[in-house]
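ingest -> validate -> predict -> emit
validate: passed (alphabet ok, no gaps, 330 aa)
predict: started
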Amino acid sequence: MTDTNQQLIETFESRAERRNERRDFFKAAFGAAAVAGAGAAAISLGSGVATAQTFTDADILNFALNLEYLEAQFYLFAVNGTGLPATLTASGSGTAGGTLTGGAKVDFSGDPLVAAYAKEIAADELAHVTFLRQQLGTSAVAMPNINISGAADGPFNAAATAAGLTAGGAFNPYASPENFLLGAFLFEDVGVTAYKGAAPLLSSTLYLEAAAGILAVEAYHASIVRTSLYAKGIATPSKRLIEATEAISNARDSLDGSASLNQTTGTGPDDDQGIANRGSASNIVPLNENGLAYSRTTGQVLNIVYLKSGTATAGGFFPNGVNGTIKTSG
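emit:
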């Protein structure tokens, strides 16, 4: 067993006791039967406008599970060179999970600090997948086909090309610790906005409690990634890492459309922001003037992970779309 494998296992074990305590609390009221029966009253998740369509809390949590599959596979491969086991990709009823394209181990040997961050985030994302699957039970969707390839024809390079970052060649998130952080930056900010946008759609306060817990963790992850990129960008301006985050944020804004200003939800025409200084201060936490983080609808989230604007049902990191009821972008 390699040192990296052993360290990652130790990290997982250090979280086991806390996870078990949380599961004991949720087990009775947060089981598969309760999830399947809870409904969100007549809400359209794509547009945020009330319609006749109804989604259950299980639909919303399964949407989140798709995103957790994606994040877990990326981080586990970057840290360990292997992804989720088949036991954590099949549906709750036993249907086999989809295929995984790409993924590679990052050489963190020259950057032990980022290596430590990556191991911690990988352990957290594995815990999220495990937790959501356990609570959804037989209602849990299988992992869809996922593409995390760092090749020239992969989604990371497509996203970087859309952001104008590939003039010097194809972008591979596994090529260096800095590239890994930029790949993580693409995911983590989206994860925070996805959970914040979905929170009001949950009908059960227990489900909201769990979602808020995951949202907080994703926000911590985003801050770690943004802080690391900012520090590296200040120390070595020639790497243009700060400018790269601005380009990625602009590309995400172009994919999910221009939201109208809403100071309560934190949304606005330029809600997605990189880490460049605003005035004399850094922008590690992208907030509006009321100090609020912004939200995205599920449709906007899918626009970004599908790498397509407008209405789409597949593409980008999910070449055949996500699994579950909520699968259309726009």
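Residues 144 and 205 are 28 Å apart (CA to CA).
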